[in-house]
Amino acid sequence: MEIDLGANAFGIDFHPSTNLIAAGLIDGHLHLYRYDSDSSLVRERKVRAHKESCRAVRFIDDGQRIVTASADCSILATDVETGAKVAHLENAHEDAVNTLINVTETTIASGDDKGCVKVWDTRQRSCSHEFNAHEDYISGMTFASDSMKLVWRRYPVCLYLRQSKVQSQSDFLKTNYFLLKNGRKVICGTQNGTLLLYSWGFFKDCSDRFVDLAPNSVDTLLKLDEDRLITGCDNGILSLVGILPNRIIQPIGAHDYPIEDLALSHDNKFLGSTAHDSMLKLWNLEEILEGSNGNSGNASGAAGDSDSDKDGMDLDNDSHKSSKGSKRKTKSKPNMLNSTNNFFADL
């Protein structure tokens, strides 16, 4: 099923418990749609959330609110039931906010175009931490809940939240990351179509490569389970991919343009996808994956370096730190309740 949004969508997210999907558009609007397997997408709400493009969208508070981030440097919280603005932080960052992620039930993180990551405590209604690990834009983030570590995308940077410090960083350019194999592997997409596999905590060099995935850029990744992920590429193709052993299990579908964002529904039944056009597509994964059960063992893709998903955890230590590490800035801002960081105060 699909629908024309009327403008390009930069970010999408599914409600955590009901059949709703939100889309943030390039014109600053937030759209909310209801879906069902037996019917088409129906728009429930349209909100002018930002003056400039809405780059990221996330449901929070058990789906009661939607948080959006914008190129106008602001972050907005909107009530799902009424569409009313609950909180509006006009100067959340000094630069355009590019990504959002749910860290815990009461914590979210945001990243901007100049490499700044902020962690927001929704209970204290404030920015609790701010980090500046590099000067390039943050394209996305992944959170390891068991170790309280945050990995953000563009250059893989591992941030240990409990100690409020950057633990390790890679100098290799990637497009996006996800954690698989119960947190032991970090899977990275690249601009040349190769997937790079890192052992958790050791980001200086990859331990494995999946070189035959796509001829062009792997623009986005989405974790399906601990052994499989979904890739969206520059050629518009969506594929189900197995990791260790590395293989293309089957194609899922396609857009006419490069893939922009992917999301899974609360029951993992539907895959949502957007591309560099105005189309939002929902794919019934239950029906698609039924046909892949007999093909899941077929290998399609070569590894530059063999690896195992049972290897031990390698951690970067002080002897591996580069000279750039001493120049990284790390700031901690507990309980900042000034007007700039008063995020969740009611309007």
TrEMBL record:
Gene3D superfamilies: YVTN repeat-like/Quinoprotein amine dehydrogenase
Regions of compositional bias (Basic residues) in chain numbering: 322-332
Pfam family for this entry, one: WDR55
Compositionally skewed regions (Basic and acidic residues) per UniProt: 307-321
Residue stretches of each WD repeat: 252-286
The entry's keywords: Repeat, WD repeat
PANTHER family: WD REPEAT-CONTAINING PROTEIN 55
Stated name of the protein: Transducin family protein
Origin organism lineage: Eukaryota, Viridiplantae, Streptophyta, Embryophyta, Tracheophyta
